[in-house]
Amino acid sequence: MSTIDQKLSAEEVILARHSVRKYQRGVTIPDAEWNEILELAASAPSSWNLQHWRFLVVREQENKDRLLPLAFGQQQVSDSSVTVIVLGDLQANLAAPKVFADATQEFRDMMIGQINGAYAGNPDVARDEAVRNASLAAMQLMLAAKAKGYDSVPMGGYDKDAVVKALNIPDRYLPVMMIAIGKAESPAHPTARLPLSDLIINESF
């Protein structure tokens, strides 16, 4: 367990996480520590517990360099320890039998019927759920990384079609965001935040 694990509370991790765009090149996250980060990220909540996310992990330098032009030259893609493409599963309903394998037959049949009915009844459900739940996991991934002493930045500025082609991503999966993770080369600058009075609507508009 690292020092930062022992010292930072959940509140401190949230407040300490800032988007970092300059990373120390050549830093390797040990496999055991990286797996702990992924385990923490994978504990995120999801609709029907279908766990709609997949983490496409790019750690080899050659492959990170291949992504650099697809991310419009954003150097953090190449310099960070890991670049993760967070994918949303457009067919997450197919995971329901496995998710509910240990449930009673009656409950399993009820849940699978409910899930398949929702997916069949509205063409927007698959995409909405894929994006919504993958985003929850993405935020948890960044917080888990920070808890282990690593910085991150979420990225939407990349050529999604080119990334799909370069990494052979099946049609089932939708790229939701790219996240660079590693050790900051220089500290991130905290960004200004709107006051809560601009953000909170109590009860109704």
TrEMBL record:
<protein>
    <submittedName>
        <fullName>Nitroreductase family protein</fullName>
    </submittedName>
</protein>
<dbReference type="InterPro" id="IPR029479">
    <property type="entry name" value="Nitroreductase"/>
</dbReference>
<dbReference type="InterPro" id="IPR000415">
    <property type="entry name" value="Nitroreductase-like"/>
</dbReference>
<comment type="similarity">
    <text>Belongs to the nitroreductase family.</text>
</comment>
<feature type="domain" description="Nitroreductase">
    <location>
        <begin position="14"/>
        <end position="183"/>
    </location>
</feature>
<keyword id="KW-0560">Oxidoreductase</keyword>
<dbReference type="Pfam" id="PF00881">
    <property type="entry name" value="Nitroreductase"/>
</dbReference>
